[in-house]
Amino acid sequence: MYFAGVDIGSTMTKVVLMDNSGNLLSAIKGPTGPEYRQLANEVMRQALEQASLQIDDISYIVATGYGRLNVPFADRQITELSCHARGVSSLFPNVRTAIDIGGQDAKCMKIDNGRLTSFVMNDKCAAGTGRFLEVTAATLGIRLEDMGDISLKATKKIQISNLCTIFAQQEVVALLSRGEKLENILAGLHDALASRIAALARRLGIKPDLVLTGGVAKNTGMVRAMKESLDCEIFVPEEPLLTGALGAAILAKETYMKAVAAGEALPTKSRRLEKATFFS
Amino acid sequence: MSDKNKGLSKAQEIYLNRSQRARELKAAGKKIIGYPCVYVPLEMLTALDLVPYQTCGDIKEPVTEADRALPHSFCPIMRNCLDCALKGKNDFLDGMATIHSSDPQEKTARVWESYTNYPYFHFIDMPITVRPEALEYFKSQLNDFRKTLEAFTEKKLSTDKLEAAIKSHNQQRALVRELYELTKPSPPLISGTEIVQVVKALTSLPVVEGNDLLTETISEVKNRTDGPEKKSARLLIWSSTLDDTDIMQVFEAKANVVMNESCGGIRAYRGGVKFTADPLEGLADYYLNEITCARTFRQATLGETRKDYARDLQSRFGYLKGIIKEWKINGAVMLLVRYCDPFAFEMPSLKDYFNSLGVPSTYIEYDYTTGALAPLRTRVEAFLETIS
């Protein structure tokens, strides 16, 4: 028996396939948008190819992420909050707090025995999300993936006073024109973002172990800044982008196994790989 | 099938075309007075044969015109209400009765007055505490309101007429509470979405017509066989305003909203106005003390609750305890409208209160636009996943 988790985030689409023993068979990431936004089926196809499986071989599929509602081949939708919580706790059994920073929002989750118990999310605003870093990278003409490493070379702390993405961008330009070094500015930006997310997390109450996930967790400068802001050890999964899809796959497996054990029939969707639509 | 011109279907029709009845009444020679908030004592309008009409926002309407008069980071509901007014959507009004129920209401009232040209405009300066001095002051404000209404209508506001109006409005409150009794069964006999339609219809009709609508609706709902399905949770929503069916349906897709503690729900219909020798005294007391909105400061007004957090919470939020028990609430959502500071400031204490009662709760913010629906959906579903 095989299970799939499909996580359609604002920036990336992720698919995880696993067997009934929980072994990972494939894990695929692909961009969500804009041209790719209807191509969840393509990411799924690649994942199936990697695992040498056919779509009909999958017993149960859970979709998550902001595009979860209309994945035509998914059997059940579960929010990314529950899926991240489940995914993270499978990798870090002692996790009590998880922070996921994605392209569109930041989520802080309280976890107890592998289950999401409460959460807070950032406002509908780019500040405090990966988008903040994307915009700044574009302004500075550097690659997003290089930002963190450059920031670690900082020799002094620059205070970025404005957390609004647009105003911070202007502040960065002003600092550059004053001759401030790029690495120092980047370190300041990471600190600003981290302090905003730390404030959000403190509203929920932080308990160790704390795990950081989402695309922003791949940024070494952010991990450093979050550690300083929260003053605690931070664990980062090897593939921080995949915890939502992983959790979805685990929840697919658990949902299916529970129904089988109870002798209940579980309704499933047609296994045709059609395009996903978004809140149509 | 239900009768199209009665009860729930009628409420839905009015909800979708709220100003129709007011326009008809205007054409028949009645005077229509708009009001933006449930704190305006409608009894005084009814008693002078004026038709009260609540000027609501419309979440589907992008705010454009109001931006020339109001700052952007400001109560989105008042921005939206004013925007609708500036776009001529309330062009049938003969006047506005505004009130200082919150600072954005007060600021918007002034802009409203200067940017529009209604024959009648009045602003009631309502105090924010429940102290006896505040009650006296509020009563004097209602007396001023009486004077401008009398001058506008060229009629005397007699005690008899005011008492008759109080009786009709009290009856409306009782009928709305009776309607809410019908959400007590599981599944409820009426959905939160349907109640939003009914309540929003009431605020566009003369009180007697509203009471007829309620009577028909209650009788229809009691006998219906096509009520809502049972969902995974029975929710209480605590909010400043939840008066839109699209927003309500985000909750009701996966839960039964059995209590809407907001201005789009039961808030203006709890209790009733007492009959006092001077009716304004009863009105002042009801509107200042009985309506449970975060705009009123209740902390530490009673000596014995001072510095006793648990008792303070009880004095501020005690009314929710009975609701949670009687309506078998198993989840509470504090739904904040962005920039609504009075409600935002209540949130941490209310969260503590819900915790003390063992009711899981969450806080969600929205900005009164359709763009808020998708993020709202994720937060609501995630909350329901934590409590199911």
Can you give me a brief rundown of this structure?
The complex is a heterodimer of chains A (280) and B (388). By secondary structure, chain A is an alpha/beta fold.
Uncertain ranges of chain A: none
- Under CATH, the topology of the largest domain in chain B can be stated as Rossmann fold
Structural class of chain B: alpha/beta
Q: How big is the Rg of chain B?
A: 20 Å
Query: What percent of residues of chain B are in strands?
Result: 5-15%
Assembly level: heterodimer
Output the CATH topology of the largest domain in chain A: Nucleotidyltransferase, domain 5
Q: Would you identify the CATH architecture of the largest domain in chain A?
A: 2-Layer Sandwich
Largest sheet of chain A: 5 strands, mixed
- Distance linking N and C termini of chain A: 32 Å
One letter per element, helices H and strands E, the order of chain B comes to: HHEHEHEHEHHHHEHEHHEHEH
The H-level CATH homologous superfamily of the largest domain in chain A, spelled out, is ATPase, nucleotide binding domain
Number of helices of chain B: 14
Overall 3D form of chain B: globular
Helix proportion range of chain A: 25-40%
List the helices and strands and how they pair.
The complex is a heterodimer of chains A (280) and B (388).
Chain A: E1 2-8, E2 12-19, E3 24-31, H1 40-50, E4 58-64, E5 76-77, H2 80-91, E6 97-101, E7 106-112, E8 115-121, H3 130-140, H4 147-151, H5 165-177, H6 182-204, E9 210-213, H7 220-230, E10 234-235, H8 243-261
Parallel strand pairs in A: 1-4, 4-5, 6-9, 9-10
Antiparallel strand pairs in A: 1-2, 2-3, 6-7, 7-8
Helix pairs in contact in A: 2-8, 3-5, 6-7
Chain B: H1 7-16, H2 20-27, E1 31-35, H3 42-47, E2 50-54, H4 76-86, E3 95-99, H5 103-115, E4 120-124, H6 132-153, H7 159-181, H8 192-202, H9 207-222, E5 234-239, H10 245-252, E6 256-261, H11 279-290, H12 309-326, E7 331-337, H13 341-356, E8 361-366, H14 373-387
Parallel strand pairs in B: 1-2, 1-3, 3-4, 5-6, 5-7, 7-8
Helix pairs in contact in B: 1-8, 1-9, 4-5, 6-11, 7-9, 8-10, 10-14, 12-13
